[in-house]
Every structure is written in C-alpha cells, then in structure tokens.
Amino acid sequence: MTGPTAGTVPALELDDIQGTVLRRRPDDYHGVYLLYRIDDPAATKRSLREVLPKITSAADWELPRPYTLNVAFTYRGLARLGVPEDSLASFSEEFRAGMAARKEVLGDLGANDPGNWLPPLGGADVHIGVMIIARAPEGLREPVDAAGRLAGVNLVYRLDVGVPVTGREHFGFRDGISSPHLLGSTDAPLPGQDSVQPGEFLFGYPDESGTPPPGPAPEVLGRNGCYLAFRQMHADVAAFRRYLRDNASSPEAEELLAAKFVGRWRSGAPLALAPDHDDPELGADPMRNNDFRYHEDPRGLRVPRGAHIRRANPRDGLTDTVVAVNIHRVLRRGAAYGPPLPDGILEDDGAERGIIFVFLGASLSRQFEFVQQVWLNDGDFAGLGAERDPLIGDNDGTGVHTVPATPVRRRLTGLPRFVTVRGGEYCFLPGLTALKWLTTLPDTAAKPATTPPTSMPESDR
C-alpha cells in the first residue's frame, strides 16, 4: 500500500472535531453514558442547538473546565432527525444495519447473542448517545443537567462509570496504555507509539492509502466525523481468579499466568520488556511502557502470540505477511463500571461490573469488525488455528491458550467465558459543524423509530 508523501502532516481542524477522538480521558475520572430515544424530532433539534456550546472539541479539551461532553447518533437517530434518504444511504452498510445485525461477523453468539442483551441495547429505541467525563463527581452536575433538559427525547439508558479504587480495570490490569498517534494532532507521539494518518479515524483527511476514505454525504455531514462502536462488557472476575488459581502453583505463578493471557503484568509493564518479573515502575512510565516490538520474539516466548495485546495490535509481528497493520487500528476509549469484587473472593457476588469499550474509526468493517473477527476471535493470523483471545474472546469452556516455552510449550485448556457482551450500538460521531447542520434540518415527517434500515437482514429485524 502506498501511503502519503513522507513528512506530510495534515492540519486537523481541532475546533471542529469532537474531543474524545483525539484526547484521552484523565486517569482519575467519573463519568456517565446516556442513551435517548427521539420522540419529537423538532423539539430535539431545538434543544440540541442549546447544548452545542457545551460539547467539547479537541481544541478545548484541556481548558480549565470540569467536564467533557460528546454526542453521537445511531442510524435510526439520524433518520429521526430528518437526514435525507440519499445522505442516509451514503453511510456504510454495517452502520445502517446496526451492531446487533452483525452478530455473525462479531461472534456475538451463545451468551453474547443480541437476544440476551440488556434492553434497550440493540433495539429500536436508541437514537442519541451522550458521553460525559469529569475529574470529580461534582463536575458531572452541569453537563448531566444540560443533557437532562433535552426536549423531545426519552432517557432509555444510563450507566455510571469511573476508575475503580484500585486505579485499574476489574481484572486488575492497568488499562489504556497503548493507542495509535494521529498525524496532525497536537500531542507528540510517545516512544513506541505508531503514527497513523488521520483519515484512518476521521473523514475528510488522507488515510494510509494517501487519499481520504469515502464518508457520509454531504461533506458538511461527514467531515471531521467518525464511526463509534459502543460495547458494554460484563467481567466475570471470580471466574478469572478461579482459573488462575486452578492452573498455577503459587500466587506468583498466578500473576505470571495472568500476564501471559494479557501480554502485560497487572502494573502495565509489558512482558516484552519484563518477561520474568513485574516492574511497576516500568508499567507507570509512559516513556517506556509501550516502547517495544515483537521482532525479537517471533515464537512468543516472552509475549505469547495469542496474548490479548499482541492480538489487538500485532505491531511488527505481521511484517512478513500481507496484512497492513495500520489499516486495522482502532482508537479505544474505555471506562469501568460497577463495584470491584473484593480481593480474595472467588465466587461471583451477582453485581454487574465490567468495561465499556468505545471504538472510534473511519471504517467499522475494516477496523472494529476486522479486529474482533480476525484477531480476537480467531487464531489463524498467528498460526494458532481456532484459538481465541484468552481474556475477551468468545470462549465457552472449551477455549485454549498456548504459552510457548522451552523445552515444552504449555497448552491451557477449558477456558471459560470471562467477558460477556451485555449489548452495544453502532453510532456516528459528527464534527461540530455537522452537529449544527443536523439541528437545522427541515422539520419533515420523520421515519417511525421502529422502522429498520433497509440493509438489515429480515432475520435480524
């Protein structure tokens, strides 16, 4: 694939890009995810105009404001607002169909099947998504009140999120370390961070091929926007702890086994740099904790080829293959929800806890769905056959994870499902100019909220 001219750095329109695309949430955070059904499109558009000044752009993310607020829409939501038919048809097929209709591609079968999702996820009533993050609980009051004043809508879902008291996600790992760097953004890349053309994630800019990817029409709607995949994932922490206990000879061996599942120690220290013992100082150092490649570990003796981080981002591990890794990258914005399971507890307490995964990119099929289907839920790309991601893969009690070693590799069997999909949605995160355009659409007779897109298979309606 021929990329843009070397040294070319596009100028990003930071004041028109919703901030969550380019900016990470703070390490210590409190947040809320809100989903709305549009009942009165005209009233909704009027009230959205009032909310526009509160939406956070990439340019004002770091200003001394107590919160960030971003807004996205499902296909049904755009239709309800009166987006013209030709514009709706310009969105990708997978976006128009919705996440639930893509269950075969995503491996959302068995316990993960949309028939088991928490309502309203995957249903007809999700039209608008609002994401609010604050550094302190009191910072949520103003934006949540503003979202609560939206007219013409009905709140159908609320999920509060925040960093657990441990500072790590529920399985105990430091999260959010690795992500691609967008050329043209104001942040300098960290050591080991891949620089990727912005068109891989934002419409209106060149992607890795050197040309802008086709986006929604008209240009005012598509430019500076991207697709967003939202997933609520329940974490069975007790099952994870039991598996480690049953397959390790000591607490120290449990920690090494957990690291072999993920590719990092719980501190965030990568096995590629700390293969034998955890190094919390390394894990906490952003100048070192992501600065590694896999060329010196082709067999996976340090980081198993099936480990979570090696699947989610193979880095240079696929250099001699036909796969161009940079066209399958995703931006991920995760958040934890629910109470932590107390230390030492090996039985589930019935509480709902897990992670919200938010994936951002210019192509749901080439990025999010490819990673989910080919890298996380299959092993052929790494010569591992039907092995799935050991932590978040679609395992059902028969899962396998191979840990290379000398003289004899270890083959872990009977992996249960540690993560269960509770639901999800495909959304479009528009630029701020596009948001304003959406609020000025004529108040015409909108499609009923229950009308499925024409691209959705009959069996999934």
UniProtKB/TrEMBL annotation:
The keyword Coiled coil does not apply. GO terms for molecular function: heme binding; metal ion binding; peroxidase activity. One of its GO terms (cellular component) is cytosol. Its cofactor is heme b. Keywords: Iron, Metal-binding, Oxidoreductase, Peroxidase. Residues 288-297 have a biased composition (Basic and acidic residues). It holds the Pfam family DyP_N. The keyword Oxidoreductase applies. SUPFAM superfamilies: Dimeric alpha+beta barrel (SSF54909). It comes from the Bacteria. Residues 16-134 form the DyP dimeric alpha+beta barrel domain. Residues 272-297 are annotated as: Disordered. NCBIfam families: Dyp_perox_fam. Belongs to the DyP-type peroxidase family. This is Dyp-type peroxidase family. It comes from Streptomyces eurocidicus.
